[in-house]
What does this fold into?
Amino acid sequence: MTTRIPVYDDLVAASKVLGKMAHRTPVLTSLTMNRRLDAQVFFKCENLQRIGAFKFRGGYNAVANLSAEQRKAGVVAFSSGNHAQAIALASKLLGVAATIVMPHDAPEAKVAATRGYGARIVSYDRQTEDREQIAQSLVQEQGLTLIPPYDHPDVIAGQGTAVKEFLEDVGPLDALFIPMGGGGLLSGSLLAAQALSPDCAVYGVEPLAGNDGQQSFRKGEIVHIAPPNSIADGALAQGLGKLTFPIIKQYARDILTVTDEQLVEAMRFFATRMKIVVEPTGCLGAAAAFNEAVPVKGQRIGVLLSGGNVDLSAYAGFLQA
Amino acid sequence: MTTRIPVYDDLVAASKVLGKMAHRTPVLTSLTMNRRLDAQVFFKCENLQRIGAFKFRGGYNAVANLSAEQRKAGVVAFSSGNHAQAIALASKLLGVAATIVMPHDAPEAKVAATRGYGARIVSYDRQTEDREQIAQSLVQEQGLTLIPPYDHPDVIAGQGTAVKEFLEDVGPLDALFIPMGGGGLLSGSLLAAQALSPDCAVYGVEPLAGNDGQQSFRKGEIVHIAPPNSIADGALAQGLGKLTFPIIKQYARDILTVTDEQLVEAMRFFATRMKIVVEPTGCLGAAAAFNEAVPVKGQRIGVLLSGGNVDLSAYAGFLQA
It folds into this structure.
C-alpha cells in the first residue's frame, strides 16, 4: 500500500475512474436558511449518493485502482458503518470479492445491506476479538488487500471528488463546512478547494465530545483520545490519519465542534424544511454553519451533507425529541 | 376566470413563466427498487421543490398570468395545505398581496410558514363557517382574485411542467404513476406525457378510502363522495374538477388505489433507502408501483413524488409504525 500524500491531480484521476458510477449528487438550497443566516447557503447532498454516503466515492476509487492481481485476490475492510457498504458495493460493481469484518451485534439492516451487495461477512465479538487482527490475518492468509476507511491516498482522492463537483457546480465559495472523523473527506475536500476556490475558508467539524481533530490542529501534531460518546457515530475516530493530518494542518482554516443537541436541531431542519434525511454525522458541517461557529453573514457558503444512513427508530426518536 | 381546458402549449408557456423560479428538481434512482421490481424506476422529486411540493408550479403560473389590474388588487386562496403556501410564496415573489383562508386550528407550523411568506391569514371556524363563502366575500368586497387549487387552466399547466421536465430528463417511459386528489397534477402530467412520450401509460393514484377518481373514470362522469378518511391529506378531494376530468377521461390509462399501510411502507422505504422525506400523499404513485398495482416488470417507469410536507411528530410516528 502506497503512503504518498495525494494531490489535486489524484482527484482529477479519481473523477475519471468514478465516471458515471457515482451520482453527481444535487446541490439544494433553502430560502429559509439563507434568510436566517443572511447568507447564501448551498448544500451538497452526499446523503443522496449511492449507499447513502460519500464513502462510495473513496471506496470505489480504491478498489478500482488495485492491480489485476490484487483484484483477483479480493479485498477486506473492517467497519460497521458506511465504509463497509461502500467497499461491498464498489467490489460488486468491479467484480472483486469483498470480505467485511463486522461485529456480530451490528444492526441487522446494515448486515443485510452489506450482504445484499454480495459481500462475505466475517463477524467477530466486540468484547473478546480485535477486528484489525482478524482483517490482518485475512490479508496474510488469503492474500486479500485491506482497504482502510480514510488513511489511503485513493480513498482521500475519491472523497475529494464530492467537493470538486460541488465547486464546479456553484463556483467559488467564501467558506465550506465539512464533517470530520478520520479526516478522509476533509483532506480530499481541502485539495479540491485549494485548486478550485483557493480563497475559501475550509472548516472541519467534529462532535464536541470527540474533538481530537481540533486538539491536533491546534497542537500541530496528532492527538489521540479515548473512545468518544456522540450520536455522530461516523465521526468517532480517535485520531486523524498519517496522510490526512498533514493536509488538514496545511490547508484547513480551523476545526470547529458542535453538540449533539445542535446535530438533532439540524436533522429536524432538514426533515421539515428541506425534506431530506441526514444522519447525525452528516449534520456536523451544517450544525456549525447554522449556529454560526464562525461568522457567515453576507457570504456564499457551502455545507457538505456527508450521509443519510440512520437507523429508522433512532431517527424517529430524534425527530420527536 | 377562463374555463378553457389547457393544452400542451400552455405547459410550454408555463415553463417559460416559471423560468428559474421553480427548482428543476432532481430525478433519483434506487438500485434496490430496480432489483425488487425488475424494472428501471425513476423518481421525480417534487418534495424537493420550493415550499416542499409541486403546487408552487401551478400557483406561480396562475398568479403570474393575472392582469396588472388583478395583481394590484391581490389574490385569495383557501387551503390548509400546500396550495396555501404555493400562493403565498408565488405572490410574494411577484409582489402581489395574498390572503389565505385557513381553519383557526390549522397546524401552527403551516400557519407560520404561510405567514413567513408574507401572506395575510384569515382564519375561520371549521364547525360553523364555510371557507368558500369567506373567500367569495373577499372576492366580492375587496376585488381579490380567487386562485382555486386545481380546477384552473394556469394551475393545471403549471403542475404539468413537472412531468415535462421529468420526460425531458429521462426520455420516454413505459408507465408513469401520479398522485391524484382533484386531478390538477394528473391532468397536467397527461398533457406532458401525451406530447413527449405518447405511448406511456399514465396512471392516477388515489387513496383506496377516497376513490372518487376511480369511480368517475370507470363511470365516465364525475362522481362525488363523502369526505374520505386517509393519511393522504392532500388527496381528500371529494370530486374531480370540471377541467381536470375531461383530460383524465381522455388520456389516463387507469386510476389505481392504494391503502394507508402501503403509503406508510413507501414512506419508510424513502427514508431508509433514498434518504428523502415524502409526505403520505406524495407516496401515492410510488405505493402503486411498489405493490405492482399493474405489471411493471422489464419496464422503464416514472414515479412522481408530489410533496414532503408532513408534520414532524406524525412523520416520526409513521417511521416507527
Observations:
- Chain B touches chain A at residues 26, 28, 31-32, 47-48, 50, 52, 109, 116, 268, 271-278, 308-309, 312-313, 315-317, 319-320 (CB under 8 Å).
- The beta strands of chain B are 27-28, 40-45, 75-78, 98-103, 120-124, 145-146, 175-179, 201-207, 254-258, 300-305.
